[in-house]
């Protein structure tokens, strides 16, 4: 029997949270580009070497901005999946957690780029808790859909 999927009226909030994560990627782009220019490292060099970073604070700052951006890219896709699935049954809660994740990831980006690894801690904690909650909600939503298919 086919599954008919209706999105809740509040699902638009979920889409706003999802779309706003694209803006955080732009924040990362600008932070990395600014740090690259200041460091003098040319494309296609992805990171300063350990020796360069040890000698030059601007090269170290570039590495921090690049690593923050890489971490964001690693985490955005799983976040989006969890958000979009969880939002099918819990749209307002998912949107709220999505907004918290996006805000925390922006703080993570700026903190890491400006203060190094210690500057990312606050954003990391909030985004990790939000992400964990979204993944739990997504799993439960998926189980509910699977159980309904056999009802």
Automatic annotation (TrEMBL):
Give the membrane topology, semicolon-separated if more than one: Multi-pass membrane protein
Question: Membrane-spanning residues where?
Answer: 12-31
Q: Which InterPro entries match?
A: MAPEG, MAPEG-like_dom_sf, Membr-assoc_MAPEG
Keywords for this protein? Membrane, Transmembrane, Transmembrane helix
Give the main localization category: membrane
Gene3D superfamilies annotated for this entry?
A: Membrane associated eicosanoid/glutathione metabolism-like domain (1.20.120.550)
Could you name the domain of life of the organism this protein comes from? Eukaryota
The family database entries (Pfam families) matched by this protein are listed as: MAPEG
* Compartment list: Membrane
Protein name (database record): Glutathione S-transferase
């Amino acid at each position: 029997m086919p599954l008919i999927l209706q999105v809740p009226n509040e699902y638009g909030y979920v889409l706003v949270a999802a779309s706003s994560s694209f803006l955080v990627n732009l924040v990362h782009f600008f932070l990395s580009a600014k740090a690259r220019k200041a460091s003098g490292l040319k494309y296609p060099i992805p990171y300063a070497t350990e020796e360069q970073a040890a000698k030059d604070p601007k090269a170290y700052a570039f590495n921090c901005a690049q690593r923050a951006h890489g971490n964001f890219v690693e985490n955005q896709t799983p976040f989006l999946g969890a958000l979009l699935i969880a939002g099918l049954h819990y749209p307002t809660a998912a949107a709220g957690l999505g907004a918290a994740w996006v805000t925390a990831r922006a703080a993570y980006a700026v903190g890491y780029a400006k203060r190094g690894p210690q500057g990312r801690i606050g954003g990391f904690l909030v985004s990790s808790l939000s992400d964990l909650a979204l993944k739990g909600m997504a799993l439960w939503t998926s189980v509910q859909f699977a159980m309904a298919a056999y009802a």
